[in-house]
Structure formats: structure tokens, C-alpha cells
Amino acid sequence: MPDISAMSDTASASAILQEIYGATKPQARSAAAASLAEFVLKNGLRSLALYGILDDLSRATKSKLVNEREGAMVAYEELFRKVGLAGGADPYFIPLLVDILGRYDESGKAEVVKVAAEKAAKQLIRLPPPELAPKLIEQLFVVIESNTAKWRSKVGALELLSTFAVSAKDQVAERLGDYVPRLSGAMRDTKPEISAGAFKSGISLCHVLTNPDIQPFVPTLVKCMADPGTVPDAIKRLSSTVWVREVDGPTLAVVGPLLTRALAERGNIVQRQTVILITNLFKLVRSNDLAALHSPNVLPGIDRIIESAAFPEIRAFAVEAKKAVEQSIEGAASPAIDHMTESLEDEKNAFKELVSLAEKESGEKPDEFFQVALQTVAFLISQLVRKRSFDDADWKTVYVAPYLANFLGKPTAEALAVELRKRWMAIENARFKTETAEEDDEEGEIVCDLPFSLAYGGLLLLNHTTLKLRRGHRYGMCGSNGCGKSTLLKAINRKQIDNFPQDLKAAYVEHDIEGDESGITVVDLMKEEPRIDADEDEIRATLLELGFEPERQDVPILSLSGGWKMRVALCRAMLMKVDLLLLDEPTNHLDVKSVAWLQDYLNAQSHITSMIVSHDSGFLDAVCTNIVHYQKKQLVYYQGNLAKFVEKNPAGKSYYTLSASVIKFTFPPPGSLMGVRSQTRAILKMTNCTFSYPGAKKPQLNNVSCAISLSSRVGIVGPNGAGKSTLIKLLTGETLPDSGRVEKHPNLRVAYVAQHAFHHIEEHLEKTASQYIQWRYQDGYDKEQATKATRALTEEEKKVYETPIVGKTGESRKLERIVGRQKEKKSYKYEVKFQGLDHRSNAHLPREQLIGLGFTKLIQEYDDLEASREGSGSREMSGKLVRKHLEDVGLDGDIAEYNELKGLSGGQKVKVVIAAAMWSKPQCLILDEPTNFLDRDALGGLAVGIKEWTGAFLCISHNQEFVSALCPEIWNVEDGCLTHKGKAAVVDTAFESQPGSAVGTPGSGTPNAGTPGGSTPAGSTPAGSGDEEAVGETLDGVDAQLAFKAAKGKKKMSRKQMKDREERRRLRTVAWLSNSLEGAVREPDTDSDEEKDGKTLRIPSKKTKSGTSTPVIAGMK
Fold first, then answer.
1. Helix (H, G, I), strand (E, B) or coil at 276
2. Three-class DSSP labels, 293-310
3. Is the whole model's pTM more than 0.70, yes or no?
4. What is the pLDDT of residues 801-820, one digit of tens each?
5. Are 704 and 686 in contact (CB under 8 A)?
């Protein structure tokens, strides 16, 4: 007997449909369509098929009656709006899109059908979640690629396609290489509306590209799809750009077809440009699997050019391109992994599993209608697994449960979604599981256990790995510079790791404190931190525990040393009462006592988990319970400290040794210093210097004296805040002493890398490393010299500069600047330009006269400029040579040339700063805490590079291993005093300088310029002379005159030597005349200084009335 209720429902559905078709007014038709949607919601999704609703509406779309066609479109729109939004109906509505687009060609009296169809289509494309968008896009391409579809339907499909560049950006980006080429047929359509729409749609889709280098060329690339004749022009434009960003999959997918076409071109110019472009692109592809996926598209064409290109140069470029492609795919899986294809197998397996689970829950095999939903769920699961998206909410509320709830009920559907998520997560973890050194049999509460991937920009750092942490454990993060250690800690702190426990409270600790330039005090910083829930008493007690005496608690953070700033950061983390401490180089700037305190503190925390990034092997040995090693973009876990890790993994021995087995630093040889022919002759000297910070109760440094020579290897040690960095700043001229003086050779070049090394490049983060060095030295001198504190004029100096200079004739002139310098016997004369007068009125004034008039700082500035020109002005600034220079300090050449500084790791930035400082061939290298950001390999390369370098080296470091390996002489700074230990490498009595190079303080007791003053030797015995024991460990205030040796006589020259001399003179004159730099100095004619009328002259040492020697500049004859 037939089911009367079913017959009644069928009749009811049919009646509603007839009411829709028969309505003559829009309001009545809309009301009937709303009734149909309510009927489906009441009777369930199956009613769409059970009562033939979709079949009847599909018939009506092709009816000859306008009312029926319009009624079908209105009914579709109402169903999409109400039933579709209820969830789970997408699989049944998506196939309707082709029929709806077919009604776009209605016109005339039937144009109302077109309007209704447009509304229905726009409503439909809003329904599916992003991962289901590709199914809708395929329906659009059915129309776009059809030979029978009307032109209005194709234009409508192209317009809808463009919208997915916004609503499903990631999904379009993944398939961009497929979608854009499929538009090429429509771009070549004879109907202008179609071709224009296809071109516009192609450009819209390409807006999903995230690589800024490719974005300006999107219209050109899209045009190439339609017109192959534009390929040469496109290649020309692309090859002329500078590629610096990481090249990702969508970028390769779009450029790939163009490269394939260009490699088939016969033109020599196109072939050359194409292989160069391929070289640049594949060097920036950091994922070897991605490169392997696209390499088959270009390698055959490259091989063809290598074999058949007409010019050897093109063949050579092709060989370089092939080498770049092969290097980019090293280590990739073979055959190349296509994750899109891989997900098809997951989809099949997921469908079988879903059918089995549905049959188990319902007691019967799913029918054809149910299987449509299951097929959709299987597709969605395969996409979620491919992306490792295991967010519980996505599976329960968006992608799985809603499609099962219409058949199994909401509670059962959600339970199945949870079960499926766990199953596929286990499958994915097993698929990408990395073999570890041991099984995880540790005790302790697991606070975090989740799979994740990590990328920075377009660079994949960690791929399908697991973050597993236990409470109270301390994890040492080990890996090379740039592998992503600090990036991982920052991502955890910002909760950027998918599915990271929201209730796990984390704090990121580093020595750079945000806002430390504002003048805020230590206590106020803690009070204003919103994550700290503590009163002032608790804050002060915690600060006292960390060594902050009451008076230090109220000082501005700006005045603290790096070590004390690190303590501030640690205190802030302690007061937050966090569950997870993220320590990024915590021992940076900490002295030995502070490091010991930090070790004891961390070891005492049984409820706080720590993740530690550090290059201090001793510290990791002392605190770590586990080591997490970066290995092939995976996190591999080892139990025990660093020593136990090395036992299990011998390759980790590099964490204990300083060697250049992996990275070798090579520094340019130091330039020569005029008159300095002994490695032990003092070239930089500080005498009785005292310095106090504004507002300080006692001097930071008190009556300090020291000196260095070319053979000096000095380690500067002492507790935090003792004044080590201040001492260096006084030596280099970054800071001026309150009293005493600093002397240096006039042509000495000092390379100084500050404690906070990044300040050197913080204003150039948009540049690459190569561009930064080229900018810094593009004018032939070091632009950073102009930023020294010694360059700023005090109010008193400004008044002196405004004082007129009275000439012999009584005429008064105001000095504007120094424009030139030339040697005059034993000193210099400076060409001076006067205010308001042209160059013809310039005068040449002796150095001593200018110093006597108070222009010491102006002379120093010009001396530094000339010294910098001498070192860097002779070096070619080509990109190739700059790249080679950066490679010599261990920085990857491609990173140096193509990656912006803001994207580099801390270790890579330090290498850039060191390389930039060494470009000018300095004679003295000063490093303030160089071990802070360099890994063991880089540290070993730096140590070996310094050992082989022949210039002077000074180093501030708390890393005893590094200091003891390089520095036989130690300067210990403590309580404002400097104590010398070890072997000094300076013969101070032979310090050939001239008093004009000293930096003194008026009224401080410093000897007047031009008169030798007292000095205290840092050591009077050269290392290795046999008299080292006679060198005291402290300065005894021994006064020594500055000795200036008389020049030796010369032998009479032969005829050939005289001819060579004349040729040298001619070349010097030509070089001077052709020099376009402002203030260029004519090279001294050293061939004639001591010769007159063919006779050799001897110049005796002149004595003044007081019996002292007349000062001469070092090396002047």
C-alpha cells in the first residue's frame, strides 16, 4: 500500500513548484519560492531528490516558457539563501551553476530571466567554504572552455571567476599555474567582450601572488598567454629586474609557461636573457621539492641551448642556469612530490572510510544521494590533511560535520568529525615522522604536543614536524644560523603556531627591550607592563633578587649596559608568572656571575618549561634537560644536555670547537700605515682618560691609559656595567673623554662593530647586504664616519668656528671647511676654503696653526675621511666583488645579493656588519660581544680568520673560550680602572704620532697641541722579545717621550731609476687631474722629498730650546 504521507508531500512540493511557475508578479513568485525553501528545510535535504524538486527545476531552466525559466532562477536563489546557508547542501547545488550561467544569454522580454540568473549565481558562489571553491571554479571553466556556450554566459563566468581571487585566495594561488593558462583560449576569442573579460580575469587571479618582484609584470605575463609574440618583450622586462624575494610555488607556476616558451625561441638575445632569468629565479627557490616539481619544465630547454646555441657566451650562461636548477633540487624527493596529486589518493581512502563509518552508524549502506555528500567530505579531508590543518573547530563546524549532520544527526556527525580528525592526524604524523635518536619515554606532564609547519616569508623553515614540550624541562634549540630558531620562539610568543594551546602562557626574553629609548625607568617599565599582575613591592623585591640595588631600580633603561638590560627582560618574564620561557641568547652581555645566577635560576624551576636559543655551549651543558636539533626542516629531540647530544650525534661536536671546517672567514689585508714599519709600534693610544655619564655620581672610567699596535690581540673583560664598551667608544672616537687624551695615527682606519650590532643597519633594512655596502662606500669613503659623536660641534666649538682668522695683511676671514691636504716636510698643510669666497681665495695653512686656532675636530674629520678614502676609494664597487667580500665572511652569496636585511637572522646580520666594517681594509678591528649571534661554525670561522689577519684586534666578550683562543693580552675593566694582564704587543716609546691627532679636553691638563706630553705605556716590551716578565700587570705611570726618528739617507739613483721616477710623477699628476671627488688630495711626490740636485740629504733630529724633539707625523721624512 503506498505511503499516503509521502504522496501528500510530493503533491505539496509539486503544488509549490506550479505556484512558482504560474506566478505573474515578482512578489508572488518570491513568496512561493520561500515556501519551497521552507518545505525543504522541514522535510530535510533528501526532499530535493525524493520529491524531484531539483529535477523539475532543471527542466524548467530549459523550458520555452519565460515564466518557468524565471521561476526556476528565483527558486534557486531562495534555496541557496536559506537551505544552502543551513549547511551541507553545497554538493547538490554546485552542479547547477552551468545551467544558471546558460540563462545569462536571455535578452528582450526574457531579460528578467537573466537578472534572476545573475542573482542566483552570485548567491551560489557565496555558499561553499574556501577549500570547496575549486569545485565551483571547475564549473565555471566548463562554461568558459565550452564551444557551445553563448558569449554572455562566458563573460558572466569570467566575472564570477575573478571574485575567487579574494574569497579563496590561497586555493587559487595553489592552482594558479593551471587556471591562468586555461584562460588563454578565451583571451584569443574573436568576441572582444570575451577576450577582454578573460584578460581582466587573468590579472585578477594573479593578484594572489605574494612576491612583490613579480607583481609589476602580471599584465605582461597574462598577455603572453594570449599572444606568444610578446614573449621576447616579456623576457626582456623580467630579466632586467632585480629579484630579491623568495620565489614561491604560485610565482613559479605563472612564470613557468613563459620560460618554457622562451627557451624554444631561436633569438640569441632571448635565449641569453631567459637562461639568466632562470638562474636568478631558481637561486631564490628555497624549497628543493618545489624546485624539483618545476625543473622538468626548463631543464630540456636549457640542455638544448647548451648543445645548440651559436655563441659560447650563451652556452656558458646556460651551463650556469643548469647548475642553479640542479643545486636548487638537491636533497629533493625523487620523483618530485606533487602534493596536489598526492591528495587524490587521500581522497579515495577518505571516501572508503566515510562509507564504512556511515554504514556502521546508520546500519545500511549509503545510497547514491548520501554518497554525493560523502564524496565532498572526502575531498575536503584530503585538502585539510595536505595543508596539515587539524583545527578542531574547522572539522566540527565547517568542513566535515555539517555535511554528515543532514544524514546522521548533528551529535553523531560531530563525534565522527573528531574521530576522523584524530585518525588523519595520526596518519599524517606517521607519514612525516622523522627518526629520532631515542624513544620518548620521559616523565612529566606534556604541555604541548602538536604537528605544525613554519615559514618566514616564502622560506619554509620547518615542514610537517612536531612541537612536544613537557613541564619543567629545559630545551636547548640547536641549529645553524638562519634555520629558524629565533623565528620559532617569536611565532610561539605571538601565538602564530596553528592549534597552539591558548592557555599556555609564554614570554619571549631578549636583550633588546622595546621602548628603552624613551627614558622609562626599570620599575616603571614593570608597572606599565599589562601582563604583569604585581604591586610595586613585589616588583622591587624581584629586581633585588636579580641584583638590582635600590638605586639602580630607578635609573632609565637607556643608561643600562647590555647585561643589565638582559636582567630587566628576565625580571619582566618572572613577574608575568609564565608557563613557558622563550630565551633568545639569554647569556648575551651577561658576565660570569650573572650567567651563573641564571643557570641556578633556570635549574630551580620545576613548573616552568624553557626553550633556549644560545651559542654558549657551556650554558647549554649546565641547564638543558633536552636538545632539540634542526635537521632537514624537522625538530629532532634528544634527551640530556649538549654533551650527551654530541655523544649520540658526533656531527654536533662543532658546538664545542672553534674551527673553520664549515665556514672560513677571510678578511682583506690591512692597509699600510705611513711610517709604521714595526708590528709593535703604537698606532692608537689613550692617556689618563676619565669619563662620566651625565648625572652619574662617579666616573665610569677613571685615569685610564692603554695603547695598541698592529700585532695587538687584546681581550677586554669585566663585569656588566664596568665600562668596557665605554672604553672602546673612547678609543674609536664615538665618545669624548672628560679629561685626558686619545692619540691615533692620522691614517689609521678602525673597523668597529658595536655591542648592539644591528644599529649599524637599522636604517637600511630594505636594502640587500650588497646594496648596503655599496651605499655605505659609494662615494669612496665610509659614510658612517660622519655619524660619530666626535663630529658634532659643541656650543663652544661653534663659537670658535665663527671667530675670524686674521691674515698677515690684517684681512679677516671665516673658515668654511677643509678641502684638501698635502704633505709638508714633517707635517701637513691643509687647503682651507673661506666663507663667501671662491676657490681662488683658498689658503694653505699648517696643521699646527689650525690646531692652535681650535680647529682640531675639523682636522680629525678630514684625516678620517682621507684614511677612509685610502682604504675603500681604491676598491671597485662592482656587485660581483661585493658579493665575494660577503661570501668571505661566511654569508651565502645569494642571500647577500637578493635578500633584504630585514629578513636575515641575527647571525647573518652580524656577518653583514663585520663585512661592511672590513671593506675599507682597516688596520684595527674592534668587536663588542661578537659571539652574541654567531653559531659555533661561524664563531670558529671568525676565530680562524682573525688569527690569520695581520691587523690589530680588540674584543669585548664574556665568552672565555673565544677570548683565550685569540687574545694573549687582557684588559680587565672594573670599578672604573683598567688592569693589564698577559703579554703586551706594543713598544710604546716608539709611538710615532703627532700631537695634533690627539683628542683632548680644554682645561683638563692635556698638553697643548704641538707639544709632546706625558703618556703612560700600556707595555714596553714586544711579545716574544724575551723580556715579557719585565712587563708589569698594571700601569705605573711611567712617562715616556714620543720619539720621532730622523729619516735615513738614500743612495744615488741609477739612470733607469731616474726614468722610472719621472714616469711615476707623470702618472700621479694624471691621476690627480682626473679625480672628480670633491677635495681630492694630490698624491705626495715622495720621490723628491729628500733629494736635491741629485744629492741625497740627511735630515737630523731638531732640538728645541727645551731639548725635546720637534714633533713630526709618523712616516714623514
1. helix
2. HHHHHCHHHHHHHHHHCC
3. no
4. 777 887 777 788 888 888 88
5. yes
